[in-house]
């Protein structure tokens, strides 16, 4: 690796303070270490020089297609080097990448494309049937990714010289729009600027902290897909440092373990469910993880037993991250030094980074004292620009620079954040946000369903599972199989209820509001936290 040594910190950490946009990142590392692998994927290698060249071609092609600054460019496909070529192509052309969860159904994909106003779609052949089944027309330009020659020809028709975007790209220029479901049942587009992928790096460096760090020779596993802010953030952090990432097209526990062992992976970013799956793979032992020096995990709470087992078997530093898509991913970190088995902080989400403020408020917006439970709010320089096209929703979540997380928790005297419950109704299934309203809306379109209420219940494997309470319509008695079949074409698999419970009526308070908590709490009565 020909890393530019002049920009290393004294203890070997990699930090390039002159980089503030992804455009600068691609150009800098192509100039200083063109032969260093940027992306490894299924035996293929894309160097920093090649990443710069190919993303330049894509940027030229995007502009040649008539797209201008701020236009939306969608990507529907699994992880590969092409995803990152498109990411940097968007960054260089001033357009905004809209990565789409490939597990979504045709109506869900249609909503994202329509809501974002996507004009150009990069599409893997495997997902062509989804686009063909959409109730709306596809974008005006669709570029096939799976047909390698076609994609290569599309790029090759344009030059790979450096591009000079107009107007200039700045840290506040939007670069990505990630969709996260909401309590309305329709996903919202969270707009993130370049600064969202640099602010936490700068915060750590400002205080010389190594809570999360990048070092020469690092090879990073991307366990979280790039349509999630965690996966995108982790990839960009490694690109900014000039290290190598290993992209998995789909996370598979056995494959992940093999990659860690065979490629000498040194860092990884995963959700707790991925840790559990790797540890329960037959034949897996501590010898498979000897090259790991740090594991970053987040996306959902972790049980203390799983964390202690992971610490023992992986035998490396662990850093927990907490945040939202709206906060630009992580705003809080539980650093390695606090991962002491049986210690008082093992159930904490972590401590805000330097420059990130936190507070806990009551229902009237008044700030609470340490130990009092209320809504956790975070002010971070990495925060979102807006919810795309939803100014009222933006004002509800982003208030005077504070992101209202919808999570209930408290601060201790030292500023550590503990998450107790969720004020909003999100269910976390293996790190995936699932929102009841979306599933309830779909269920209530079934002729045999009068009403439905969705809650999250604890699950040993996935953290939480989706549990459906269903009131049958008069004269109907649908079976779980009937309802499952009805939902399969309407919702992504991770949103499907794992169990259906038929009841006579939905409990409500005197004003008619559903007592969701009453239904949910019976699954959590024996749990200290109302999340798993």
Description:
With 532 residues, this protein is of the alpha/beta class. The longest helix has 17 residues, at 48-64. The model has no long low-confidence stretch (mean pLDDT 91). A hairpin with a 2-residue loop joins strand 1 (37-41) and strand 2. Strands 2-1-10-9-11-12-13-14-15 form a 9-stranded mixed beta sheet, with helices on both faces. Strands 16, 17, 19, 20 and 21 form a 5-stranded antiparallel beta sheet that branches. Strands 4-3-5-6 form a 4-stranded parallel beta sheet, sandwiched between helices. Among the domains are: 17-35 and 46-169, Rossmann fold (3-Layer(aba) Sandwich), CATH 3.40.50.980; 427-524, ANL, C-terminal domain (GMP Synthetase, Chain A, domain 3, 2-Layer Sandwich), CATH 3.30.300.30. It has 15 helices and 26 strands. Helix 10 (272-279) crosses helix 11.
- Gyration radius (Cα, Å) is 23 Å
- Name the beta content range: 25-35%
Number of helices: 15
> What structural class is derived from the secondary structure elements?
alpha/beta
CATH topology type of the domain at 17-35 and 46-169: Rossmann fold
Architecture per CATH nomenclature, i.e. the level-2 architecture of the domain at 17-35 and 46-169:
3-Layer(aba) Sandwich
Biggest beta sheet attributes = 9 strands, mixed
- Spatial gap, N to C terminus: 41 Å
CATH class of the domain at 17-35 and 46-169: Alpha Beta
Query: Fraction of residues in helices?
Result: 25-40%
- Average of the residue pLDDT scores: 91
Shape: globular
Tell me how many strands there are.
26
Output the strand order for the largest sheet. Answer: 2-1-10-9-11-12-13-14-15
Would you identify the regions where 5 or more consecutive residues have pLDDT less than 50?
none
